[in-house]
Amino acid sequence: MRYEYTVETEDLAKYYQMGEVVVKALDGIDLRIRRGEYLSIMGPSGSGKTTLFNMIGGLDRPTRGRVYIDEVDISKLDAYELAWLRCRKIGYIFQTFNLIPVLTALENVTLPMIFAGVPREERMRRAVEILNRVGLGDRLHHKPAELSGGQQQRVAIARALANDPVIVLADEPTGNLDLHTGLEIINMLRQLNVEKGVTIFTATHDLKMIDVSDRIVWIRDGKIDRIEKRVDVVVGMEEV
Amino acid sequence: MSKSTVESREVKFPPSEAFKFSIESIRRRFVRALITAISIVLGIAFYVGLRTMSDIMIFIYGTSEAAKSYQLWMAIISLIVCAVGILNSMLMAVTERTKEIGTMKCLGAMDGHILMIFMFEALLVGIIGGIIGAVIGWLAGVLIYVGEYMNILFSPALLASYVMRIGEGIAIAMILTVGATIYPAYHAASMDPADALRFEL
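Predict the joint structure of the above. Result:
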């Protein structure tokens, strides 16, 4: 079934008790992300971007509100179903790449397919295909320590796409990369978004992300400040 | 809009794949595994050596010459020290790999899968350390008497007890290593992915 909205959040809130003080990391977020959309969450440090990433990615439970992935309320999932969701429906990309250091690029990409029960030959074939697509066909057997930051992030992208997820979540994907490499990664994400129709959700403070996003959600102090469409932002900047 | 629930679908991590992963983890972190193995080798060698010498003496002179209980206690305590060392080493290993564990959970790994990985690693190190330790211990026990009792040392009854002692040594090594790893592995398996990913060493 194809759902119009890949992700929906309803009054999402996350509060932390720090001694006497309650920190409101998220304070009522209502968001709907369309299938195939490229959405960026932008805001200063501490605005709640990573918390929102964790909520949507099923990595943490909200204090209030709900998250729906493909119309399924993820708080109702048990451990098995949650693991399955993370394996098959969601791909994750992190600022620090988070590749498994003891595995080669190829093995890093086949790992999620092992969890998905894909037979050996097929997962090898698909992994090689995706790694070629991100331009690492000649580095299949390199370990992360033998790859540059940009290359590691490309392996991470390949890994995120291994099981054909409905959404890819990226938390500061260009945070540890220089300007030029960051741009490569951003463009690659956009190309893959267009080619495969996979929804992309980025939490970032890299302004270069604005150019490729369909919508930009500005977040501050755990609340949505405003939502802009790329078209509007570009036009706005031209007026300046 | 109606919200449906997802059918039960499972993430698979066949033991063969977990095993391969464990082997790769050990290979990549060889020195750490080596140190753990050496501590097992020493503890087991001491125990097996003592028992072998005791068996030989009993065989030749009767039970009055069995190893004294204080000697056995020394060997047992050294095994306990060994186990504590393994516990510490494994706790450090789990802490160092916190991000890795968080990442694997993002890929779909369940708590039981993480547990399996660490337990396999413990098993491997335990078996290898146990075999080496037991053989060294046995050799030491036999070589001490090789001058005086050369002919008797390899009589069939003694050979049978040698095999049993070595087997016992290997079994103890495996039980010790796996036992000492249960708590660290359980701690690794129950890590919350959001916290694990945020972890800085």
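The CA atoms of residues 174 and 182 of chain A lie 5 Å apart.
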